[in-house]
């Protein structure tokens, strides 16, 4: 079942930017924001991205310390 969200205290300049981007995309603000929410909810989280990078690098990738990264197999 669909759920409704309410966002309060949106600064005027942000609301205007969202309205302009929705208009440029030929969408209503509702449709534009729904697409943004879908994209955000379905994109991998930073933790998922890090885990994937570690897996691809053989399990030893350390994004905070490049000197500890294993070289990629070629």
Key features?
single chain; about 70 residues; 3 helices; elongated
Account of the 3D structure:
With 74 residues, this protein is mostly helical. It has helices at residues 12-24, 29-42, 46-56. Helix 1 (12-24) packs across helix 2. The mean pLDDT is 86.
Please provide a brief summary of the model.
The chain is an all-alpha fold. The chain is built from three helices and no strands.
Give me the secondary-structure topology.
Elements: H1 12-24, H2 29-42, H3 46-56
Individual helix count = 3
Strand content: under 5%
Q: Helix-strand pattern, N to C?
A: HHH
Rounded to the nearest angstrom, the radius of gyration is 19 Å
């Amino acid at each position: 079942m669909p759920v409704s969200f309410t966002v309060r205290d949106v600064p005027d300049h942000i609301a205007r930017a969202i309205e302009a981007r929705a208009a440029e995309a030929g969408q209503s603000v509702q449709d534009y924001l729904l697409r943004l929410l879908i994209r955000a909810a379905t994109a991998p989280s930073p933790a998922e991205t890090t885990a994937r990078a570690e897996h691809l690098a053989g399990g030893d990738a350390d994004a905070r310390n490049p000197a500890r990264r294993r070289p990629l197999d070629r």
